[in-house]
Amino acid sequence: MFKKIFFIFAILAIFLFSGNFALAQENQKWWDFEKWSVDININEDSTFLVRETQTFNFHGNFHWTVRNISKNRVRSISDMKVFDEKGKELVSPEVEITEDTNAIAVKLNFDLTDTKMTLIFEYKVHGGLGYFEDYDELYWNAVSEDRDVVIGEAEVTVHLPEVADVNDLKQALYTGKSGSRESSGTYEIIDGKTFKFFGNNILPYENFTIVAGWPKGIVFSAGVLKINSLPAGAEVILDGENSGLRTPAVLEENYEISLGEHKISLEKFGWEAEGDGEKIVEMETGRVNTLDFKLKETTWFFVLGKLSYLIPIFIGIFLFKKYQNAPKLKKTIIAQYEPPKDLLPAEMGGLVFNSVRSKDFSATLVDLAYRGYLKIVEGEEKTFWIQTKKYTLVKKKEFAGDLSLAAHESEFLKVIFGSAETVELGELKSENSFMKMIAKLPKEILEKLVKERGYFSSTPAAREMSFLLVLFAAGIFISTVTNLFPNFSFSVLVAILISLGLWFIYLIIKPPPLTEKGIEAKWHALGFREYLQVAERFRLGVLTPETFEKYLSYAMVFGVEKKWAERFADIYKTQPDWYESGTPGVFNSVIFANSISGMATSVNSAISYSSPSGSSGFGGGGGAGGGGGGGGSSAG
C-alpha cells in the first residue's frame, strides 16, 4: 500500500516539476531592440528612401518577426526590400510582404534561439513631405510605436540632395506617447545637408518622431492649396465638381488640383458660407495657398436640431420592433465543399462581412478572368531605374448584353474597359469616371442580397446608420439637458445615462438583420471558408487544378488564398491561360497566389486612396506620433 502511495506522489511530483520547468522556460523567452538606426535620403523629385537597420536581441526560441509600416500622411510606399546584416537581399519564403490601404506588413520567417540578429528594411516613400510657405519638411515617425518592447538606442540621419545654408535648416524631435511634445533625445545639424537625431531607452508604445526643415528650392516643391472651414467637415467643390475631399483639406499639384486659376466653394448639410461663398485661387508650382471659410447654420437646420431631442425615443421604438425577433446563427460550422448556390465572390463578401470591400472586387476580377472575359498580364516597368510590377487587363470576350453576367459584373467590366481592349490597372486610379462608378457597385450588390436573394431584411448599412442616429440623438439629448438645465437632478441624469447605455448594448449585441434564408446561406459560406483553409482534411484525393482556379476568387474574399494555394503546390504546375506571369522559371500554385496578391494590392490601390495630411511638425500642431511612417513591430 505504501509503495502505491509513494508511486502516485512521485508521479505527481514529476508532473508538477515538469510543468513548472516548462513555465519557467516560457517566462525566460523575451526580446527587444538593441539598436534602431534609420538613414533617410531625400530625393530631388520629393520622394525619399528609408533604410531601417534593426538589431534584435532574442532570448529563447523565436520563429518570426513582423514590421508593419504605416501609410499615414503618405501617398504610397514602393520598392520594399529586406536585407541581412551582410547586405544579402532576403526573398520568399523567408520574407512575406502584404499590403493594404493603411500599411505594408513585412514578415520574416526563421528559427533562432538566444541570439542577436540584424535586419535592414528599405523602402521608397512617395508624397510624404510637407510643403509650407517658407520651407519644406520631413515629419516622420522613425520607429514603430506599436510594439511592446524597449529600443535600447535610436539614431536617425536625414540627407538632403544638395547643400543648404546651415542657418536656413531647422529640426525638432518628439518622444513619448502620441501627442507628447516632450523630447528625451538629442539632435544636431551636422552640415548643410545632414540632420542627426539620437535617443536611448525608447519605451514600449513610445514614439521617436523627427522633424527636419529646409528652404524651398532644395527639392521639387509642388503647389499646395489648404482649405479650412469653421466648422470643419464641409465638402470641397472644385470648379463646380465635388472633389471628394472634406475640410480641412490639402490639394496638391498634379494630384488633386492642376496649375492655373480655380474656383473653390464648400457644401455642408444645414450650413452655408458667409459672404459670397466662392473664392478664386491661382495655383503655382512651389506656392502654398490657404483659403479660410466661415459657415453659419441655416434657420431650418437650427429648428430641426431642437426637434431632434425626441429622436432617441422614436428610434428606440423602431429598432425594438424591427430587431427583437431577428434570427441567429446557431448551428455548428461544418465544412462545405462548394459555395452557396449561384453566390458570386463579391456577393459572398457582402453576406459574410455585411459590406463589400475592395478585396471583393479583386476577387471578382480573378473570377471573371477564370470565366474567360479577360486576361491578366503581369509585367514590369522602370521608374527612375527601379523595377516595379504593373498589370495589364486584356478583354477576351464581349460582355455587353451577356445574360450570364450579374449586373455588378457587367458594370465592373464596363467601368474597367469602356470601349478599350486593353487597360493598364495602375491608370484606372486617376480616372474620375472609374472612381465614381466603382463607388456605386457595393450598394447595388447589397441591395441585390436584400431584394432578389432575400438574405437580409434590410441592408447592413441601414442598421449601422440606425445605430449612428441613436448615438447622435443621445449625445444631443444629454448635452441639452446638462446645458439648459444645470440644476437638473444628478441622480435622474445618471439613471438616464445608464438606461441609454443598456439600450445601446442591447442594440449592438443583436445580430444583423439576416432572414432565415440568409442565416442558412451564411452558415454554408462559413463552412466553405473552413474547407478553403484546411482542404487537406477534406477529400484531398479529389482536388484538381480546376478546383484550385475555380475557387481561388472565393479564397481571396476570405483572405485565405495563400493557404488554399499551399494545398495544390504539388499538383498545380501549369500557368493558366487567363493569367500571364512576368516572372519566368518555376511555376506552382504558391507562386501564382503571391502574384495574384500583388495584383489584388494594385486593385485595392486603384479603388481606394487617401490624401496625406497637411499639418507641420513645427509649431502648435507637431507632436510625437503625428508624422508619417511609424507602424508596428512584433516577434514570436
- Biggest sheet, open or closed, and with what strands and sense? 9 strands, mixed
| Number of E-state strands | 26
The helix count comes to 14
| Mean pLDDT level | 80
- The helical percent reads 25-40%
This entry's quaternary arrangement is single chain
- The percent range for strand residues is 25-35%
Shape: globular
Helix/strand class:
alpha+beta
Distance between the termini: 48 Å
Radius of gyration: 29 Å
Uncertain parts: 1-26, 609-613
How would you explain this protein's 3D organization?
- The chain has 636 residues and is α+β, with helices and mostly antiparallel strands.
- It has helices at 2-27, 299-307, 311-323, 345-353, 358-370, 407-417, 432-438, 441-451, 460-484, 490-509, 516-533, 545-558, 561-566, 589-607, and strands at residues 30-42, 48-70, 76-84, 95-99, 103-126, 129-131, 135-141, 151-159, 170-176, 186-191, 194-202, 207-215, 224-230, 235-238, 241-246, 249-252, 260-267, 271-273, 278-283, 288-297, 374-383, 386-395, 422-424, 579-580, 628-629, 632-635.
- The strands form five sheets. Strands 1, 2, 3, 4, 5, 8, 10, 11 and 26 form a nine-stranded mixed β-sheet that branches. Strands 6, 7, 9, 12 and 25 form a five-stranded mixed β-sheet that branches. The protein has a four-stranded mixed β-sheet with strand order 16-13-20-18.
- A hairpin with a 2-residue loop joins strand 10 (186-191) and strand 11 (194-202).
- The two termini are 48 Å apart.
